Amino acid sequence: MLDKTKQGWWKKATAYQIYPKSFQDTTGKGTGDLQGIISRLDYLEKLGIDVIWLSPVCASPQVDNGYDISDYRAIDPMYGTLDDMKELIAKAKERGIGIMLDLVLNHSSDQHNWFKEALKSRDNPYHDYYVWREGTPESYPNDMKSVFGGPAWTYVPHLGQYYFHQFAPQQPDLHWDNPTLRRELYDMILWWMDLGVEGFRLDVIDQIAKEPDLHITGNGPKLHSFLRELSAETFQKGCLVTVGEAWGATPERAQLYSAPDGSELSMVFQFEHMCLDLEPGKSKWEIRPLPLVELKKNFEKWQHALHNCGFGSLFLNNHDLPRILSRWGDPQNYPAESAKLLAIMLHGMEGMPYIYQGEELGMTNIRLPIEAYKDLEILNMYKERKAAGIPEEQIMESIYQRGRDNARTPMQWDSSPQAGFTTGTPWLPVNPNYTEINAENRLADPNSVFYTYATLIRLRKQYEVFVKGDFTLLEKDHPHLFVYQRHYQHENLLVVCNFGGTATEWSLPPYWHGATCLVQNYQDTPVNGLRPWEARIYFKNEVN
Ligand code: TEU
Questions:
Q1: If you placed Cys at 95, which of 45, 127, 137, 531 could pair as Cys (CB 3.0 to 4.6 Å)?
Q2: Is 203 annotated as catalytic?
Q3: Alpha carbons 371 and 536: distance in angstroms, whole number
Q4: How far apart are the first and last CA of the chain?
């Protein structure tokens, strides 16, 4: 167990993201709940994780699955009660697992009492909690668009004003320039800290300092001063781990966010590596094959940028991204090998790894008829593209590849009906491959991908080099090999990955002969040649 009273404890930690709606149902209503998570803590303990990032469980009309909060201090009845939450915090803590709450501070739900008050009149005290501009029904304040499609402005006739929303109209943006609003948010965060949460994930945190008149959403000029105030007023009063979602982060900005003095956050999620298989300059729906050489150089850039002057996160999945095994691996021909390679490639690096529920089982994308999808982004995009005359087949293919519901199908626990997720009808269909891909099968097989993750989590705690080692990329321009070395004092690591379904010539450099193989995805470790999707980590204890 990590000693969580020491600042920086999270540098050795691994997090596991739970999307509560799809994790474990205990009532038969078809949606997961907090008691379901509690019932699966033994499983998570076995995996060895230290932190659960819990996607939002606060009261919400669920327009965006909880990323539209109507009461920051209440649990949505769908998930249980505040007592269930307290029980989860306590029972997780007994197992050395901390709860990282998802804070949505950029916007609230339109059903939040603040917004209901704000709608009453221009001089209501809550009116200024949101971002308003003058207008008429015919003329929008400007042409800014919402991430989920349509304008970023919605008109309120009785006020003669528009409010600003970067996401759905039901997610009005909060007005961070207002100090009363900021204080209210800080008090809420302190209240959760008192309840014993050990961390926070901050939704779209780079977008809080928007300046709509300047067409600025991300990285507004006041962003870092807001963050420093937020951190001083809340996080720095505890010993927490914090991670901000920052799509627009550059290495320079990430250094600010994760400054070692703790003045802002522990780290951010940046997404450059997750955009390399998208057509440059186009939407997330226009995809291209993964350019491996660019991926390697991108990781190299980030590993160097944050080494000793910040900290990074390591992830390939979350609730907004398609399943990585379907995206960059080979679920048809080499499901186990490629899933393990992706884990080994990532977990050998510096940073805090985040595993998304089901990733440790090798869960994959799903194909559903359009009526079965639930995500508002998918449904809006489908309508917009249909109206623009894009062929049905092309739209559906992009949903199969990139839709957010790929990640949101229920967790596959066993081969019983509905994968053991619910006794009722699941809110989103279970992937039919659950009869094979499920936790029960994985736990029974000592060579399964589950145990590769468990090993990687353990190694990070065991060897300092995983946490503190420098990073040297080898075979930079090799089209299939991703090889890197790490070094800290007398500890040395070599991570070797053969990306793809063809065997590749390669021989272990003489320095590494006799080194220990800490983890591998084939049973034996020949010195020469790499088999399809083969990956290994070597360790050598020697001053060099
Ligand atoms: O995501 C931020 C965000 O920008 C995403 O909408 C992203 O662009 C999209 O998912 C790409 O497909 C966060 C949450 O992670 C997401 O689930 C929420 O919908 C969003 O904020 C609004 O709160």
A1: 45
A2: yes
A3: 43
A4: 31
The predicted-structure confidence for 269-299, as pLDDT tens digits, reads as follows 999 999 999 999 899 999 999 999 999 999 9
- What's the rounded Cα separation, in Å, for the pair 201 and 203? 6
The encoded tokens of residue 101 equal: 């709450």
Rounded to whole angstroms, the Cα distance separating 485 from 348 reads 9
Q: What are phi and psi of 173, to 5 degrees?
A: -70, 140
Q: Which residue owns the Cα nearest ligand 1 atom 20?
A: 67
430 CA distance to ligand 1 middle (Å): 23
Instruction: State the Cα–Cα distance between residues 96 and 427, nearest whole angstrom.
Output: 31
Tell how far the Cα of 217 is from the centroid of ligand 1, in angstroms: 14
Strand-strand pairing, 352-356 and 15-18: parallel
Cα 239 from Cα 285, distance rounded (Å): 40
User: Are 276 and 294 spatial neighbours (Cβ–Cβ below 8 Å)?
Assistant: yes
Question: Catalytic pick from 84, 203, 320, 337?
Answer: 203
Residue type, 317: N
Please write down the HEC assignment for all residues of 212-275.
Answer: HHHCECCCCCCHHHHHHHHHHHCHHHCCCEEEEECCCCCHHHHHHHCCCCCCCCCEEECCHHHH
Q: For residue 337, which phi and psi values (nearest 5 degrees)?
A: -60, -45
| Catalytic hit among 25, 68, 206, 245 | 245
Q: Helix 449-462 and helix 335-347: axis angle, to 10°?
A: 10
Instruction: Please state the φ and ψ torsions of residue 383, each to the nearest 5 degrees.
Output: -65, -45
Phi and psi dihedrals of 86, rounded to 5? Answer: -65, -40
- What residues are paired with 519 via a beta bridge? 537
364, 401 Cβ separation under 8 angstroms = no
**307, two tokens:** 């080494």
Ligand 1 atom nearest residue 148's Cα: 6
pLDDT digits over 122-172, tens only?
A: 999 999 999 999 999 999 999 999 999 999 999 999 999 999 999 999 999
* Atom 18 in ligand 1: residue holding the nearest Cα: 67
The torsion angles phi and psi of 264, rounded to 5 degrees, stand at: -125, -85
pLDDT digits (tens, 9 = 90+) for 32-59: 999 999 999 999 999 999 999 999 999 9
Residue 400: closest CA among 287, 283, 279? 287
Pocket test for ligand 1, best of 110, 166, 204, 277 (most atoms within 8 A of CB): 204
Which residue has 């193989």 as its token pair? 517
The dihedral built from the CA positions of residue 219, 225, 229 and 231, taken in this order, carries a sign that is positive
Q: Is the dihedral of CA 159, 165, 168, 174 positive or negative?
A: negative
